[in-house]
Amino acid sequence: MSRRRATLDGEVIRSGPATASGRRQAYVRSGAIRPPQERPQGPPEPVARAGAGPLLQVEDLRVEFPTEDGVVHAVDGISFQVERGGTLGIVGESGSGKTVSALTTMGLTRRDGARISGRILFEGRDLLALPEQEMRRIRGNEIAMVFQDPMSSLHPLYRIGSQLVEAVRAHQRLSRAKARARAVELLGLVGIPDPSRRMDDYPHQFSGGMRQRAMIAMALVNDPRLLIADEPTTALDVTVQAQILELLRRLQSELCMAIVIVTHDLGVVAEMAEHVAVMYAGRIVETAPAELLFSGPEHPYTWGLLRSIPTLEGPRLEELAPIPGSPPSLIRRPAGCHFHPRCPYAEPDHARVDPALEPVPADPRHRVACLLGVEARRRIWSGLRAGRALEAAGAASGPHARTT
Amino acid sequence: MTRYILHRLLWGVALLILVAALTFVLFRILPTGDPAKLRAGRNASPRVIADIRHNLGLDRPLITQFWLYMKGLFLHFDLGFSYYSGASVRSLIFQRLPATVSLTVGAALLWLAIGLPVGIVSALRRRSRADRASMGTALLLVSAPEYWLALIVLYLFAADIGQVKVFPGAGSYTGVSSDPWKWFSSLLLPWLVLAASFAAVYARLMRASLIETMGEDYIRTARAKGLTERRVVLRHGVRSAINPIMTIFALDVGTLLGGAILIETVFQIPGVGRLSYDAITHADFPIIQGTVLLVALFIVVANIFVDIAYAFVDPRVRYS
């Protein structure tokens, strides 16, 4: 599946309109692994945008679910921030805590008996301290969410239109007619043809991609400042995936909203995100601006994720390198570095010492939680990259033959 | 859709013919007693019995009897005449139907009004005290035989024999047209007893169905829209959760309209159930056949109704 995905991603991007994310396209074309030609040199570019401070700032967020088998440490002290109009990609395998983080930001884990601590500052207000009533006014209004499976996420018994109108009227005192007009407008904006007629369709009359467009329209009816997209393309056909990402990018620039995109797919991150956080076992193990992460990943887990993506221009015979093992139980996590049982470079004391997320010497925006020495990491990664680049070079001799 | 309904109706008729045939054969093959002997009284001479047998048409070959019965039934809606009283079975059933309908409709409203809210609250406050208490009570009510419950209630509250004389007891049924208030008060206890076990079942069904529905992705979407929890539960949760219950409800009502034998007997309500009970004790075949057919008819109709209703409450259901 991932081989086809990556291929199609690359093609769609190549044929799509030129966007500001031009430099990120390079990663996708090269299979998200080759360092970019225009690697940023010198001091980091300023991140100043309109407004003061970041839009969303999560500080030491912990989410635990007490169960009969023990406490599930779903999210274990993560911090990140999202700038106004910016895009953060949260990457990780299933069970890494990325979805729980997203749902907690929306205030949707409260009723599941979750124990939540830390702070989630949205425009300076701590969402965790807000009473449910006020959180409800933010939900779907200032922060909206798009879910993974658009078939099961839409109510099967109500018309698409009435579900959109309901979302409008949950936050705005509008007449039915005006709310309907707004809903039609949004359906048109997300690219549903003949929107006023499709308003009266039921979800099962929509195709998968159309349903996700409708979900996105529903999330955007109240002009949110932050959109959380939880695996928005995972349940869709590969061709449709690319369209949905393209749609999100277009809407982001038109509506000037920030996006947190939660995914297990580094291809999606490469296309969408300006900043990336890699999660493992409830923690962020590496975080960096996208170009830094893709050009010089520091964490063995990130290496594993990158190496398990097929390259677009590499030889077809090349074996993918999956990460051995599976994510740990979040009830009884491994001692020391949580990744050490799966890490090919782990040393004996890594089972005892718990690494903190610390800045990389080369660039303070790039932080990693790894016990390997800086030099050791550089050596291993350049080794991995050299092996990979060699393979890619062989295929690159005639790459333009297959552009059409 | 029209084609589908016609198709279903035809099958319904076929089913009713089959039921008519089965009951006819069953009651004549099984040794339930000879109606001629029962009618002739004690020490009747063989000759008298033979006469009665002839008058009732019982001396003809079975197949002839069956043919005549089916012909009368489907050409004239004629269910025959009671062996015992000689009255027309059709008119007997029509006389008894109002009481049964009163009992069924009142009880049905009551059990929905109690069962569904209790189920909803239990589902939303799972494992709370309210949930445990109501599910415990439900288990008790489901397990309690309704004739036993009826006797207890009569012992406690009946105006004649009760410890606290508040409600009219057994045998107080009055037609709604003659005295609406007496009709209402006389049915209160039967309604309560009949509704009790059904309310318990419906509370459990509603609870299970709503718990399942509240775990659906579209409920999370509804919450993510920022709807009030009340709206999430009622408009998004209950709306879906109630569909399977509607099916069971239609079938239950259909069955009860054919007569609630135990309740009607204990409270001495002159309904269809009581009619069948008396007919069984007298081996009054035509009446038994008539009431069995009535039950079958109501169940078939209820089934067709459910199927058609589904197309209206669930847009995904399409018949062709």
Largest sheet of chain A: 8 strands, mixed
Order of neighbouring strands in the sheet with most strands of chain A: 6-7-8-3-9-10-12-11
CATH topology heading of the largest domain in chain B:
MetI-like fold
- CATH architecture assignment name of the largest domain in chain A: 3-Layer(aba) Sandwich
Our count of domains of chain A comes out at 2
- The count of strands of chain A amounts to 12
Task: Report what the structure shows.
The complex is a heterodimer of chains A (404) and B (320). Chain A has 14 helices and 12 strands. Chain A is of the alpha/beta class and 404 residues long. Chain A has an 8-stranded mixed beta sheet, with helices on both faces. In chain A, strands 2-1-4-5 form a 4-stranded antiparallel beta sheet, covered by helices on one side. In chain A, strand 9 and strand 10 form a beta hairpin. Chain A is globular, with a radius of gyration of 21 Å. Chain B has 320 residues and is mainly α. Chain B folds into 2 domains: 2-76, no CATH class; 92-313, Orthogonal Bundle (MetI-like fold), CATH 1.10.3720. The N and C termini of chain B lie close together (6 Å). The interface between A and B is medium-sized, with 28 and 19 residues.
Index terms:
heterodimer; A: 404 residues; alpha/beta; Rossmann fold; 2 domains; eight-stranded mixed sheet; four-stranded antiparallel sheet; 14 helices; 12 strands; 36% helix; disordered C terminus; B: 320 residues; mainly alpha; MetI-like fold; 13 helices; 75% helix; globular
